[in-house]
Specification:
The chain is α+β, with helices and mostly antiparallel strands. The protein has a domain at 56-186: Roll (Diaminopimelate Epimerase, Chain A, domain 1). It has helices at residues 2-31, 33-39, 83-101, 171-180, 204-213; strands spanning 56-66, 69-78, 105-112, 129-133, 147-152, 166-168. The chain has a six-stranded mixed β-sheet, covered by helices on one side. Helix 1 crosses helix 2. It is globular.
Length: 221
Amino acid sequence: MAAAKRRLFHAFKVSRKLALLSGGFLLFLGASGTAALMFAPASMIPGFSNKPGGHCKTLYQSEFRRGEEKRLIAVISTDDLEPLARVRTGVRLARHLADTMHPDLVIVQVAYHRGPTARSELRGNAIGAEIVHAPHPAKTMATTKPWEVRYVDALPTGAGLYFGSRVDMRLTEIETVNHEIELVEGCDGDVVDEAPETASTGGQAKKAAAAKDKPAAAPGH
């Protein structure tokens, strides 16, 4: 009987030790937000999305000239939530446009896919990131750098707008993003809805295009 009591007491001591260790560990987790996040599922972390991201659609694209420069601006919508994810998608598309359209300057503005889509609304708080790329900076008067990237350091609101501080990335940071991009491509199955506009000082390019597209008059008229 005494031996049985000793065995029971020994078992109780072990379980009490486990309880104390568990209590101390939980107290540590409560005092350390970092430790708590380490053990939390990714989907429970605020701002984390289970969506892969990186998908985009061109909302507006325009090609124009400023003097002798050929410039291209594209406004895209993306499902990226995190600021740097938006930057990666924008940089990827800027490189794609530079490789395929060969402009002297590329500007890509990134909006959220659940936000405004009308051209008149695609400005201000609707833009979460802006990428300016000059493949050959000496050929443009807009910048002296190959890359300029700025973004709003915030997640999009339910209405697809961005409210937060603006961050201008350093060139070394942009180069790091460039190295992370494995595949340079356009938006998913992208077909621009309208032909890129061409503009120049005095509107001569538009007038020439209009004259070119005008049907020829029938003989004798």
